[in-house]
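// run 5 | inverse folding | seed 20
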């Protein structure tokens, strides 16, 4: 299986989703489980509880818990990105929407992925914080 977002539209292409393919459903559940490995599973306590795209996706895949109960990553909370925006890296699933926004929309790559492997995180690119 491949992610549909990595493929271009083509005449006659058949797309199977979690609703039509057991293989696609299993792959989607596996990806969701990996997204939740380091994510706190305290949705009722979270500010976004009930209004969270990740929580909605987890519910739709039937994967609202994790087999992995080891210690989750911990980071300094929160990082002031600006006077209006705070970054909580413990809740970040590294989707990179914020990094794409800073580069493509704001035109200033002030936030980016830092480090590698299990230490990868979103962080402010420069020392100066936007006010």
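// decoded
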């Amino acid at each position: 299986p491949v992610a549909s977002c990595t493929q271009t539209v083509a005449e006659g292409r058949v797309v199977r989703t979690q609703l039509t393919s057991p293989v696609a459903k299993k792959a989607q559940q596996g990806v969701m489980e990996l997204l939740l490995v380091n994510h706190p599973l305290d949705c009722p306590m979270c500010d976004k509880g009930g209004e969270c795209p990740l929580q909605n996706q987890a519910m739709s895949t039937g994967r609202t818990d994790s087999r992995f109960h080891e210690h989750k990553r911990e980071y300094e909370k929160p990082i002031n990105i600006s006077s209006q925006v705070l970054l909580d890296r413990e809740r970040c699933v590294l989707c990179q929407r914020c990094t794409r926004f800073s580069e493509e929309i704001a035109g200033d790559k002030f936030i980016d992925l830092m480090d590698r492997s299990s230490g990868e995180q979103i962080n402010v690119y420069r020392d100066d914080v936007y006010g």
